[in-house]
Amino acid sequence: MAISTSRGGSPAADPRRDVTSNVADVRGGWPARTDLFALLLALALLNGLAARISGALATGYETALFSLLGVDAVLWFALYAIIKSALGDGVAAPLRRADKYVAALLLICCLLPVVAAASVALFSTALYLLRTTEPRTPLRKLALIALAATGPLLWGPACINLLGPEITRLEAVIIGAGTGLPTAGNVFRSYDGSATFIVAGGCSSLANVSIALLLLVVLTQLLDIPLSRRLVPVAAAAIAATILANTGRLAALGLWPEHYHYLHEGGGRQLAAWASLILTGAVIGVGLYRVARAPA
After folding, report:
1. N or C: lower Cβ tally within 10 Å for the chain?
2. 16-20, 98-102, 198-202: the lowest-pLDDT one
C-alpha cells in the first residue's frame, strides 16, 4: 500500500486523527451533545413520572407491574425512543458554550422536590434544542419527543385544571348522544336510573389525547417521517379514536352499573386502556403508512 507524503518527503498527517483530537479538545472531557441531553431529558422524564410510579408501587408490586408502574405504555415508549435516537447519532457533535448552563439548570430542576419543576425544565430544554439543531438530526428528534412528552406530563393536567368543567360537560354530551343515557352538565345516569355518574377531570379524554399525540410524534421520529401538514388528518383521526375509546368505557358504566368497580378501578379499566392504545396505534400506523407512500 502506498503512503502519501508531503512535499518534504514525510508521511502526510491523517485528517481523521486531526478531527478526532480537535473534537476532544473542544469537549474538554464532556460527553457528546446528543449523549448528554439524551441522558438529562430521560432523567427529567423519569422525574416527572416519579409520583405515578411511587403511587403504583404503593398498591402492591403485582398490581404495579400490571399497570406498568402506573405509567402509560406510550411514555415508556417515548423514553426508549429518546435513548435510541441518541444511540443512532454517529456525529458526536461537541457541546456549545450555552449547553453546559442549560444542562446544569435541567439537572438542578430534576433534583428539586417539585415534580412540575422537572417537567417545565424538560419543556424549556426541548425548545432550546429545537432552536439550536438541524432538522432530522438525532438531537432534533429527541427534542421533539421530549417536547411532546410534556403534553401528558404538564400541559394535559394544566388544561384539565383550567378547562375541566367545559371538557367534562362535552364528554357527557358525547356519552348521551351515543347511548341515549340522560345527561345534565357533566353528569349522566345509568339506563335504569339506579346510579348517577360524574365525569371528573381524571376521567377526561384530554389526558389520552396528549398520549395519542405523543405516540404520533414518537413514531414519526423513529420512522424518519417529517412533521408536516399531511400529518394533520392522522392526528385528528388518532384524537377521535382516543375520545371514542374513553367515552365508550364511561358509557359502559351507565349500561352496566353493577360492574362499576371493575370498569372504573379494576381490571376493566386496564383492559380499556390497552384497547385504547391498540386502537389509537392502529389508526396512527395506517395513517403514517399512507403518508409515507403518498407522493411528495
Report:
1. N
2. 16-20
Q: Which residue, 28, 193, 158, is CA-closest to 95?
A: 28
Q: CA-CA distance, 278 to 270, in Å (whole number)?
A: 12
71: DSSP letter: S
Question: CA 119 to CA 73: how far, in whole Å?
Answer: 18
Q: Residue 71 is which amino acid?
A: V
DSSP designation for 91? S
Domain boundaries, the chain: 29-293
> Would residue 157 be called left, alpha or beta, if left means φ above 0 and alpha means ψ between -120 and 50 degrees?
alpha
Q: How far, in Å, CA of 250 to CA of 269, rounded? A: 10
- Digit-coded pLDDT (tens) for 152-182: 999 999 998 888 889 899 999 999 999 999 9
Average pLDDT, integer, range 216-220: 98
The sheet with strand 196-198 has its strands ordered as: 183-184, 187-189, 196-198
Asked if residue 188 lies in contact with residue 203, where contact means CB atoms within 8 angstroms, the answer is: no
| b/e burial code for range 248-257 (CB count within 10 A of at least 16 → b) | bbbbbbbeeb
What are the backbone dihedrals phi and psi of residue 275, each rounded to the nearest 5 degrees, phi first?
-65, -40
Quote the distance between the C-alpha of residue 147 and its chain's center: 8
Strand 183-184 relative to strand 196-198: parallel, antiparallel, unpaired? unpaired
Three cell numbers, residue 193: 336510573
Question: How many whole angstroms separate alpha carbon 204 and alpha carbon 189?
Answer: 17
Distance between CA atoms of 206 and 151, rounded to whole angstroms? Answer: 10
- Contact (CB, 8 A) for 232 and 291: no
Per-residue pLDDT band for 47 (boundaries 50, 70, 90) equals very high
Q: How many CB atoms lie within 10 A of CB 201?
A: 17
